[in-house]
Design a protein that fits this description.
The structure is a homodimer. By secondary structure, chain A is α/β, with parallel strands linked by helices. In chain A, 42% of the residues lie in helices and 17% in strands. The structure holds a DNA duplex.
Chain lengths: 341, 341
DNA sequence: GCCGACTTGGCAAGCGGTTGCCAAGTGTTG
DNA sequence: CAACACTTGGCAACCGCTTGCCAAGTCGGC
């Protein structure tokens, strides 16, 4: 098997130094004199030497790899997030491993355990674990939560509270007096936060708010969600995410309920499809790729500190209401000539 | 650091056997007698032993990891592919590493080299490398091409030829006599194959066919692509993929060119957004997740054979024309009362 | 009862790096 | 010129697991 790749020994021989010197050239910048360093690099170049990442990981316990666990890889909302994380990781010479939890708490846990030894840290996006489980996980290895906040664990989230207030304000300004929130999974932090924020903002604005669901946040669930929401009599439907909202739009179209004439619909995430569907979807978006980027940055930062030390920042990135065609004046108001033209 | 995880030594001690025995229990099924085996497993369970993947990789050269390189991670077309591959990999207890080449030949190569030692094999999706480079790469490590065929390298592709014939037949049956192909990148195998198939099929059907482009397959490029295609006078526009097609639809809408009344538009891939845009998009789709799955299977199969040995299957999965609202009777025919009603 | 074939488990040498410790070399200072 | 503080590079012991080779044990057959 001497056909194999060159090792640190080969480089050391060619450069006429000890293996430790070669190793340090690659790992401890500044530790080796410039002249020696150059000689080693030259030898390495000649031989086409590439450090073996496993051998390196064995002693140093650093793999230059981070894992990102997403609750459902098919949700387009994650694409931007993944993309941002991937790019930032690459810039730091880290490899990003993508892991799909398929909306399953158990699978999520299993995967984290399986990879625990192979990666330097985890990005847990939209984790469905209970808080205490997360605390336990975070105690075992570096973890950054994405779109979820838990006391004592570093996190990056896209601002939901002010965003929800904006949604309510937008709807209120259109004359709506009742909204229904078509909720996401009960173990989704975002679902909980959004409902709390919507309810409070609605109360402040003198609007009624009810919650239906929970629903799996997919297009397929939109049908049932739409029917239930319409039954509440609300004129504004706020869906847990764009996927669900798109499903709702479809069902409403099938039932010949006009959007936004009869009811308004709002989503979350501003996925690519939100501006393609009919009508185009008003949604609370934000720079998801920045969320991914920031999450990686926080994780890298925490890798620099000894375990358990270091800060656990809770970063909140701004969200942004994107108003499109799925929201309009409340049906209740249409008789009013000033509004109905 | 004795706080660290238990090792094979700990297990051996508890079970009262040699470390080699423990190792073999985990790697050579059948090599160890049932009774001993049970004792070892019991000890491992008690200690919560988890094999260290790096130590294992160091000697065995197997990492239980495969890398998937995609030309552009933001292209929704890949999502299903990634998903299929990820699930199949997980089922085989392999980890899938996702790598983004950002449509750059150089970056693609760089990443492959960087990861070469950390993974057991590569899935190269829509690779932009020239054929000979791919042959070179495939000689160095197990490689499966996705949506690209090269002599002597295993591959899985979604059938383009018959699919293109179907597109042409569909357009011909609507009375179209001229089509324009808005080409993808010149170094994209699919772009080349599609154009060849469209041209041949068009010739057979007595239809004229021209090619414009190449264009980056994104929504943003659709504007220029639409303008150029309209100038050709063709009544049917076949875009390299759905993203480009959606960009085309937008531009046409801006220019008040009606689809499908004035021109018909066809895409490729059948991404999620294809049935959301206005009008909904006729497109050549297929089960992309199956492609991902099959690719992983082929790769796993080839990992079972010694390097250079083993078959290099060229798998072709069926594509499927999904007819939606963006294609309709040719404008040339509309004066005909039978068609224009 | 002995022999050969087959099982089973242990020994120990790696795999390719990292890193604590030490010694030689260099330069500075009084 | 001696004393001292830094630099710089080498030695060697791991990191945790795999695996070729060997020895002891089992078992059936003659």
């Amino acid at each position: 098997m001497r056909v194999g790749n060159p090792t640190i020994y080969d480089v050391a021989r060619v450069a006429g130094v000890a293996t430790s010197t070669v190793s340090r050239v690659f790992t401890k910048p500044g530790r080796i004199a410039e002249a020696t360093r150059e000689r080693v690099l030259q030898a390495a170049r000649e031989l086409g030497y590439q450090p073996n990442p496993h051998a390196r990981a064995l002693t140093s316990n650093r793999t230059q790899t981070i894992a990102m666990v997403v609750s459902d890889i098919t949700n387009p909302h994650f694409f931007e997030l993944i993309r941002g994380a991937e790019m930032r990781a690459k810039a730091a010479a880290y490899t990003l491993v993508l892991v799909n939890a398929e909306e399953s708490t158990r699978m999520e846990l299993e995967q984290v355990r399986r990879l625990a030894r192979s990666v330097d840290g985890f990005l847990l996006a939209a984790s469905r674990q209970p808080d205490d489980k997360l605390v336990e996980l975070a105690a075992g290895q570096p973890v950054v939560l994405v779109n979820r906040q838990v006391e004592g664990i570093a996190s990056v989230v896209l601002e939901p509270w002010e965003g929800c207030r904006q949604i309510v304000a937008h709807l209120a300004s259109l004359g709506h007096t009742s909204l229904a929130y078509l909720a996401g999974p009960t173990n989704s932090w975002m679902a909980v936060s959004r409902w709390a924020a919507l309810r409070d903002a609605a109360a402040e604005a003198g609007m009624s708010a009810v919650r239906t669901g929970p629903y799996t946040p997919t297009v397929a669930s939109g049908g049932a969600a739409a029917d239930a929401a319409i039954r509440t009599g609300a004129t504004a439907l706020v869906a847990h995410n764009d996927l669900l909202a798109i499903g709702v739009l479809r069902r409403l179209a099938d039932r010949s309920i006009r959007v936004p004439t009869d009811v308004s619909v709002v989503g979350f995430d501003d996925i690519f499809a939100a501006e393609l569907c009919t009508p185009t979807l008003t949604t609370l978006g934000g720079a998801h790729s920045n969320v991914g980027r920031a999450a990686v940055e926080v994780l890298l930062e925490s890798l620099g500190h000894p375990r358990g030390q270091g800060p656990t920042p809770q970063i909140v990135l701004p969200s942004q209401l994107v108003i499109r065609d799925s929201t309009g004046p409340s049906a209740d108001q249409r008789p009013d000539p000033r509004r109905s033209r």
